[in-house]
């Protein structure tokens, strides 16, 4: 019997494993330190932060498994809201080493034209190299493009913008979201799960709704977000298992880490958003589960599901932060 084909996540992990081969561990560690310092510094920058092979190898080893899992989570929630839809093509803007291209392959089977746009040539080169390991990404087109006022995107079913808005000026963020709205049937934007990341997600969400898009996820509605600005921020968590390479680059010995991210998935397609979404880690108490929900009103509400609720209680115990509530019936 043939062994099952490896999943995109497994293929990515083994492609990344070979990455720092030949790079002395000290040099790899220095490249990661430089990267962290740059990302903590003032962004946006005038020129790419990812300047050479050591930078992009460090980025891919240090960040790509986490951005891949965050985008995969966002795309999975989006796919649930547009059942049966499969993108015919995909453009990933500010795609770097291609995390979102891999995440789309992990969400929808089959092959489709994929274009990754970025201004950092070394990131595109490494992305192309990694993608050679994935049958559906071998033919991807990696194009050097600067995101700015002149950006225009070719029509595409799916446009992803993952961990990029953070690096742009307000004017460039607006230009990018508007270009995506003009080009795409579906736009998925992912940002770090911080208050600032949330603010950028809300800004993009507002622009997409104004352009006629409906919100497919995470919100159960396309009305204004019920969070009072400054009091809280909507974000989620994706578990990232760490390879030994990942541990070597990041230090520490934990087998996994949790990547916090925020996202919005919007579309011109008909959508079936979740009735409600779990917006915090559920609290499991003796005989009860507390779920913080964003509902269609739109409103935030804490639901207490107890043993007396029978099947619903069992479902609540299996429900994670970010899941739709109640779970769809199979
Ligand atoms: C944090 S990385 C994210 C990469 C990838 N999307 C991911 O999720 O792993 C940000 C990317 O945006 C690109 N970028 C930043 N500003 C840009 C600009 N003005 N034009 C084009 N690419 C830009 C960077 O080169 C980098 O690859």
TrEMBL record:
Coiled coil: none annotated. Gene3D superfamilies: Vaccinia Virus protein VP39. It comes from the Bacteria. One of its GO terms (biological process) is translation. Transmembrane segments: none annotated. InterPro entries: Mt_RNA_Methyltransferase (IPR052571), Ribosomal_Rsm22-like (IPR015324), SAM-dependent_MTases_sf (IPR029063). Signal peptide: none annotated. SUPFAM superfamilies: S-adenosyl-L-methionine-dependent methyltransferases. One of its GO terms (cellular component) is small ribosomal subunit. GO terms for molecular function: iron-sulfur cluster binding; metal ion binding; methyltransferase activity; structural constituent of ribosome. This is Ribosomal protein RSM22 (Predicted rRNA methylase).
